Amino acid sequence: MKKAFILALLVLWPGFAMTAEEFRLISAPGGTAYHYHVVAFLPDGTLIVARGRSVELWPPPWTGPRRTLQGHGGTVSAVAVSPDGKYIATSDSDSEIIVWDTATWRELHRFGAHSFTVWALDFSPDGTLLASGAFDTTIRVWDLSLGMEVLLLQGHKSWIRCVDFSPDGSRLVSSSCDGTVRLWDVARGGLLATIKAGIDGIYNVRFSPDGSLLIWGNYEGDIKFYDAETLEEVRVISNPKKPIYGLAISPDGMYLASAGFDKVVRVWELSTGRPVAEFSGHTSHIWGLAFSPDGKYLASASKDGTVRIWKLP
Fold first, then answer.
1. Contact 307, 60 (CB under 8 A)
2. How many CA atoms lie within 13 A of 15 on its CB side?
3. Rounded to 5°, angle at Cα 177 from 111 and 219
4. Cβ of 126: how many Cβ atoms within 10 Å?
5. CA gap 216, 181 in Å, rounded
6. Is the CB of residue 84 less than 8 Å from the CB of residue 127?
7. Which of 1, 19, 56, 212 is 20 to 30 A from residue 103's alpha carbon, by CA?
8. Position 7 pLDDT exceeds 50
9. DSSP state, residue 294
């Protein structure tokens, strides 16, 4: 690991720009062969990064890992943190899911009902449920108090890339490489709506913090905002560089970050879609994005073998 002093360009308005220091550069041993592709933060600011079969925990100021979690037989493909930070869930290419107790860092549960790579994980707002989506086209919901699957959702025609609970926990949204976004009723286990979201894979989808919007980025490079009740399009941010692989929303709900094939991290004002900042430095496409709990930093994980931590203005 080394600290980088690369300057990134932040575009606040057309014609107005300022520079900011890239705060930290984390390089994967072995370079792109062992690239980082998943990032998340614990409530205390600890950065979680997945590399190969391991999950590394980097406490702030992110100068080195404090702990490495071992237990997966396949490449770690997704990470989720419970809202209270008591648990993290990790999944892998061997279709296994591990739920870890962050107080002891011991395995709490190990689930294995999926038949292929588990690409998507999310905890319910109260931390009692865990949703998972996989290459086998299914979504499963797990009750952590019971330690068992309580819901199976089927309907997607290709692999699942993202799942996200609504802020009230009543609905679950999913995106897939079948080009659709689907909305599900968690209590009844039924499909509420299917939206044709793009011509190819939809790698990410999010509820806005107030639950009023569904937001996703598609393979064509568009970020779309839909009303979560009427399912009507509210706004589109078009980006000629395609596709978009990662989305993240800041803890205060003010900003949306996006990144993907064009190697650039972009930050937008969530309420208006106004461009706020751009960060350049990665040399290959970007898979993962995560805001720090205080909203002052943004982490990006790339196929170039690095995680870059950007200090926001």
1. no
2. 0
3. 135
4. 12
5. 9
6. yes
7. 1
8. no
9. T
C-alpha dihedral (55, 95, 221, 284), degrees to nearest 10 = 40
d(C-alpha 120, C-alpha 80), whole Å: 9
Beta-carbon contacts of 117 under 8 Å, excluding residues fewer than 6 positions away, are 74, 77, 91, 92, 93, 94, 95, 134, 135, 159
Q: Which two tokens stand for residue 87?
A: 């648990």
Please tell me the distance from the alpha carbon of residue 29 to that of residue 295, in angstroms, as a whole number.
Answer: 28
> What is the tens place of the pLDDT at every residue in 252-268?
999 999 999 999 999 99
For residues 4 and 25, is the Cβ–Cβ distance under 8 A? yes
Structure tokens at 195: 């939206």
Tell me, what DSSP letter sits at residue 2? B
The pLDDT tens digits of the residues spanning 182-237 come to: 999 999 999 999 999 877 789 999 999 999 999 999 988 899 999 999 999 999 99
Question: Using omega within 30 degrees of 0 as the cis cutoff, is the peptide bond preceding 243 cis?
Answer: yes
Which strands sit side by side in the sheet containing 118-123, from one edge to the other? 118-123, 129-134, 139-143, 148-153
Give which of 276, 294, 281, 254 is closest to 21, Cα–Cα.
281
* Count of alpha carbons within 13 angstroms of residue 235, beta-carbon side: 14
Tokens of 214: 């569904």
Contacts of 272 (CB under 8 A, 6+ apart): none
Total residue count of the chain as it appears in this document: 313
| Tokens matching residue 76 | 């770690």
The gap between the terminal CA atoms of the chain, to the nearest Å, is: 24
Cβ neighbours of residue 136 closer than 8 Å, sequence gap 6 or more: 95, 114, 115, 116, 159
